[in-house]
Write a structure and sequence with these properties.
The complex is a heterodimer of chains A (about 500) and B (about 230).
Chain A: H1 6-23, H2 31-53, H3 55-62, H4 68-90, H5 95-98, H6 108-118, H7 123-143, H8 146-176, H9 181-197, H10 202-215, H11 219-245, H12 268-283, H13 285-298, H14 300-307, H15 314-333, H16 345-350, H17 355-384, H18 389-411, H19 434-453, H20 458-474, H21 476-502
Chain B: E1 3-12, E2 15-25, E3 30-35, H1 41-48, E4 56-61, E5 64-65, E6 76-79, H2 91-101, H3 106-114, H4 137-149, E7 155-159, H5 167-184, E8 187-191, H6 195-201, E9 204-209, E10 212-218, H7 223-232
Parallel strand pairs in B: 3-8, 3-9, 6-7, 7-8
Antiparallel strand pairs in B: 1-2, 1-4, 4-5, 9-10
Classes of the chains: A mainly alpha (about 500), B alpha/beta (about 230).
Chain lengths: ~500, ~230
């Protein structure tokens, strides 16, 4: 039998991809969610369009007396680095999409070409153009040679593509060498700080020079940007092909348990479930990653946030610091609280375990995490911003009492499964749906808005915030009953969702 | 424990997965659930375990609807598939966890497991200390079945327990099932494609086809040949 090749393969894959998209659970959201998402997309799109088309009005505020094109040229490289960071957080890799085709008589090279090319159809490659195209039409095209203007916009597209494939390269490397992640992040932060504080601003100078040259129709700079695009494209394809030939990295994490760890029976079923949750975090890559991420939020990230002085918007910042310092784990890990159990959910709910015990153990874990993160970040507050100590204390009670409840409400409505053992890749968003992004608004917005509202009576406001949290905290039993009833009612839907997703 | 299915209808989309007007299982009975792929066996078991909600009707255990009260869970052991296992625990941790949720102390669990040692994956299989998710399909299934049985349940529900097991393990499983029934009087529902094993251990056979019970009778010396003829046709 000869393998299917070239365009026959692409046609087959295109048809399957279309069916996958059409039948995906993500496209089967409720009309309300579509409406809210549509409104958000329109808002963001319109904002970017206005920002691009009327750039001089924004340039006056931040760069008075500057020429829009020169300003944008200077910040293009830095902008693409920022986009790269956003991509790293949210962009999905095409690796998993290839798996169902690997045993078929299709050439791996064709599969890689198709999925690499189709991965370019991504929202991350579209939204930057909503700024750049109107900007180009208004400021670049009228004032420059047509050829140079076209080279400029093509270069922009090339760099967007380069950041797309560059991200895939980085993630492939991190799959093999996950330990590189933290040194890389530290290196990037150090270089950026040094570049800005030294006064040289080399990134800005280089960026301004490169794109200035392109606008003079300089083919060397143009070729260089396009070469970066091509180099990353080829490199990421080669790495993907290599991943297909060495699938060891997707194998489940192995661990030899020398001494079985169990909880004495006197701690009851809630104690068993609490301990089970700790083992789940410790022995599985993805939940463990969320644990580390929460620690990073509550320590390293906090240092950056507290060290940054803002001219305005400080109260919003204070609210966010308070929210994440002790509630980082709740906000990260908590929203997938039942998805973590998706692989053994049937076994959990058909055994001699009540929904109250399940909910109590999970609420206890979230509340305990608030206290632990509070204590871990306390020295940082004392060291860097002692004036925020009251905020930290108030938000400990708010997070333990209210954020946990808000997050649990979302968790008991989520039926997206998560493969905890297989997905060790960084920032894998499997298990998330648009609900999670929407839910962030009622979770994060009220406390930050509250901070603005009470800025003139901050202490009284914080006492109110803490009191609300405390009252909710002592009502834990009531919430346990409420969530137990909810889980009991929705268990069929959740269990079926986990079973369907697992296939 | 008595199990009764009353006027149950379960649909997945437009397809009727199960339609059972009436079905009863008396205390201490062992029923074998047989049928082709897609006949509705697993759906049947999931409904009994309250893992699915029927569009109509109800399942009762000892006269109480399984969706109304969870009291039946305290004396029911079950293993349907790998979703009943907790992959990130070692074999010992998993079995002790199951024992603890049924109120057994670690020492009691250890003693209860003694009679299943020959069935559980042995040290020679190099599984000591490994996590459940690292076991082969067959060994994982053995752990799940033992977890359902060692608590000495009054009701035992197993889905395809003989599949993926090597011949010696199949024989040991049959012995364990029969011993549990003899010593504990456990009521059992066992679905299987292995007609030989199921007719050997079950006192009654329920045959499902396309979501309907088409035959339900006590096992006799002719049952095996009759079932073989049915499936051959």
């Amino acid at each position: 039998m000869t393998p299917t090749r070239g365009f026959d393969t692409y046609r087959l894959l295109l048809r399957n991809q279309w069916k996958t998209t059409k039948r995906s659970s993500k496209t089967k959201q409720s009309p309300f969610i579509w409406l809210v998402l549509g409104a958000m997309v329109c808002y963001v799109g319109f904002t970017l369009f206005v920002l691009g088309y009327h750039f001089e009005r924004f340039a006056i505020v931040f760069f008075p007396g500057s020429i829009p094109v020169l300003v944008v040229n200077q910040y293009l490289l830095a902008g693409f680095l920022s986009l790269f960071f956003i991509r790293f957080l949210f962009q999905q890799t095409p690796r998993m999409k290839l798996t169902p085709y690997l045993h078929l008589p299709l050439l791996k090279r064709d599969l890689v070409v198709f999925f690499q090319a189709s991965s370019l159809i991504s929202v991350h490659n579209v939204y930057p153009m909503l700024f750049f195209v109107p900007f180009w039409l208004r400021y670049v095209l009228p004032g420059h040679e047509p050829v140079a203007a076209w080279l400029w916009i093509i270069s922009i597209m090339g760099l967007i593509g380069a950041s797309h494939f560059g991200n895939l390269v980085l993630r492939s490397i991190l799959r093999w060498r996950a330990a590189y992640f933290y040194p890389l992040i530290v290196l990037l932060i150090v270089i950026t700080i040094l570049d800005e504080t030294s006064g040289y601003g080399m990134t800005r100078t280089l960026s301004g020079f490169m794109f200035g040259q392109i606008l003079s129709a300089n083919m060397v700079s143009f070729t260089l940007t396009m070469s970066i695009f091509l180099a990353f494209g080829v490199w990421s394809s080669v790495l993907l092909l290599k991943t297909l030939r060495r699938p060891v990295i997707t194998a489940p994490e192995t661990a030899i348990v020398r001494k079985p760890r169990t909880v004495p029976a006197r701690f009851g079923v809630t104690g068993q479930l609490f301990y089970l949750e700790l083992l789940l975090m410790w022995r599985n890559r993805r939940p463990r990653h969320y644990l580390i991420l929460s620690l990073v939020f509550s320590t390293m990230y906090l240092v950056i946030m507290m060290a940054t002085e803002l001219a305005y918007g400080g109260f919003i910042f204070d609210g966010l610091i308070g929210l994440f310092a002790s509630g980082g784990f709740v906000l990260n890990y908590g929203q997938l609280m039942f998805s973590w159990d998706s692989t053994h959910f049937d076994g959990l709910i058909s055994r001699n375990i009540t929904f109250r015990q399940i909910i109590r153990a999970k609420l206890l874990l979230l509340q305990a995490s608030c206290l632990i993160l509070f204590l871990l970040s306390l020295p940082l507050f004392i060291w860097l911003k002692p004036e925020l100590l009251a905020v930290h204390v108030a938000f400990l009670l708010y997070n333990a009492g209210i954020t946990t409840v808000l997050v649990m409400e979302l968790a008991t409505r989520n039926s997206q499964s998560v493969d905890i053992s297989q997905s060790g890749s960084f920032f894998n968003y499997e298990g998330f749906s648009s609900k999670h992004w929407l839910w962030f608004i009622p979770t994060a917005l009220p406390p930050t808005l509250f901070m603005i509202a009470v800025q003139n009576h901050l202490f009284a406001g914080l006492i109110l915030l803490a009191s609300l949290g405390f009252v909710n905290l002592i009502c834990t039993e009531l919430w346990t009953n409420y969530f137990s009833r909810g889980l009991s009612l929705r268990k069929y839907e959740i269990a079926q969702g986990f079973r369907n997703n697992a296939r | 424990m008595r199990v009764e299915i009353i006027d149950v209808l379960k649909r997945f989309g437009k397809k009727t997965a199960l339609n059972i007007p009436s079905w009863k299982l008396e205390d201490g009975e062992i029923v074998g659930l047989v049928g082709s792929n897609g006949a509705g066996k697993t759906t049947f078991l999931r409904l009994v375990l309250d893992l699915l909600h029927p569009e109509n009707g109800r399942v009762e255990i000892d006269g109480i609807s399984v969706s109304r009260s969870a009291a039946w869970k305290a004396s029911t052991g079950s293993y349907l598939d790998e979703s009943f296992l907790i992959g990130f625990l070692s074999i010992s941790e998993y079995l002790k966890f199951v024992g603890a949720v049924f109120g057994l102390k670690n020492g009691t669990t250890e003693r209860a497991l003694e009679q299943y040692r020959s069935f559980l994956p042995s040290r020679s299989d190099d599984v000591s200390g490994k996590l459940v998710r690292e076991l082969s399909t067959g060994n994982g299934k053995k752990v799940g079945i033992v977890a359902a049985m060692f608590i000495r349940p009054d009701l035992l529900i197993l889905d395809e327990p003989f599949a993926n097991l090597d011949p010696p393990s199949q024989i040991r499983l049959k012995q364990n099932i029969l011993r549990l029934a003899r010593e504990n009087g456990t009521t059992m529902i066992i679905s299987s494609h292995d007609l030989g094993h199921v007719t050997e251990i079950c006192s009654r056979i329920t045959l499902l086809d396309d979501g309907h019970i088409i035959r339900d009778e006590k096992t006799s010396s002719e049952t095996l040949s009759e079932l073989q003829s049915y499936f051959a046709s």
